[in-house]
Amino acid sequence: MTDDLHEAPGFTHRIRVRYSECDMQGVVFNANYFVYLDDALDQWFHRRLGAEYLGRFEYMVKKAAMEWSAPARLHDVIELRPRVTRWGRTSFDIGVSLSIDGRPVGEAEFVMISVDPGTHRPVPVPDEVRRALDGRAGSDGAAPADQGRSPSR
């Protein structure tokens, strides 16, 4: 799950863990990681494809998996780093590394399907999307400050 074939250099999305996201064990409840991942992917697509990317490119998640290696706790700042790990004709895979202060927390894996907005039937992944997500679109990949979720301590 850590194939760095198409690393998006420099793109990092940060999430500060809030009290309501933790369970009785004092760690992030597992389902909340998928909320974090969804936010990170949206911000990555927004940065790479532009603010109105959903008007030009739509996708559906076929598979989402997460493998944890350490817990995240209240007030931790989780860094999420997405990358494309495989390109197909109508699908592509995304890996996301999660860490806290350089300590690995987990790896997520997604299989995405490029779809026609009207019918939701698979269509080829546009070349513009391939170039942008491979990090060859001229963007530095730096994520803007986390809107509403400041990681500053």
Automatic annotation (TrEMBL):
<dbReference type="Pfam" id="PF13279">
    <property type="entry name" value="4HBT_2"/>
</dbReference>
<dbReference type="InterPro" id="IPR029069">
    <property type="entry name" value="HotDog_dom_sf"/>
</dbReference>
<protein>
    <submittedName>
        <fullName>Thioesterase family protein</fullName>
    </submittedName>
</protein>
<comment type="similarity">
    <text>Belongs to the 4-hydroxybenzoyl-CoA thioesterase family.</text>
</comment>
<dbReference type="InterPro" id="IPR050563">
    <property type="entry name" value="4-hydroxybenzoyl-CoA_TE"/>
</dbReference>
<feature type="region of interest" description="Disordered">
    <location>
        <begin position="119"/>
        <end position="153"/>
    </location>
</feature>
<keyword id="KW-0378">Hydrolase</keyword>
